[in-house]
């Protein structure tokens, strides 16, 4: 491959032979900088790209590429809630900074300024990591498609995630919540049942909402977690659990008895409403959900959050507790009883045990303390 540099006016340009197109020689000439050295460096970079098979595409903006990536790649290959999250991250956090730039024009300085600008808004380390991760995935795919020569994010340090300490409820506080519910009212009754299921099994709210009778084995006392009913902002969608893996959970006799009683009540309601009893259809199938209202309508996953917040105000809790923290409460209580982290990982549905270890590191310290005390006692 031949090339060279020359001065035109006050600037230096580089040129090279990029082969033939339709039988004609394709000569490329670009501005290389204000000095001969800058032009030579630009020439060497261009020749390196050409030698690696990279072909500079027609000019495409970051906005054009990201829109295509989200709508045609993510939407087709990822879950709907992932698609919505990536779309929101791009529109809210990325587009204002780099959407107008050409894809080949994006430099590390642009990305550094973008992350710094978002950090100044008070965004958490977790949110900044999500922004970084979204753009990194998009740019890595652009490199594979050879519409970017390199991913400029590799020159930027990944934001650090804030250390997360799970909020949990004490046993006495759990009792207060149940005491505040009037189970003679159906909305309180269904919330009470939901609380008992989540506290024993550590389910996510979508897994609770998506639980179907066909996944409950009353003889073996096993519940299979196979669904996740999620609010995607535009609709409610039935998908697989967060890690895509089903998990079988052993259930106490007490909870199984409550579920049997609930099934009887549901059957009575079906007879009561007859043709007006609702059928819940998702993905072309009628779903026989456990958690339903009296008329058969599924309980929206957001209901648990809203109802739980009202319940907290009723009992005058002054701490910031979320419905999701019942899942953390479940895990913490098990760990405090000496249950192995691997068992907790399986029950919670974490794909990586490090996720479990990191979330409950504070409990791990207490477990180590007890272990140390026992060891000292043995050693005398």
From TrEMBL:
Protein name: Integrase family protein
Domain Core-binding (CB) as annotated: residue spans: 64-143
Pfam family membership, one: Phage_integrase
GO biological process, alphabetically ordered: DNA integration; DNA recombination
Keywords: DNA integration, DNA recombination, DNA-binding
Function summary: Site-specific tyrosine recombinase, which acts by catalyzing the cutting and rejoining of the recombining DNA molecules.
Top-level taxonomic group: Bacteria
Molecular function, one GO term: DNA binding
Domain Tyr recombinase: 164-373
CDD domains to which the protein is assigned, alphabetical: INT_ICEBs1_C_like (cd01189)
Family per similarity comment: Belongs to the 'phage' integrase family.
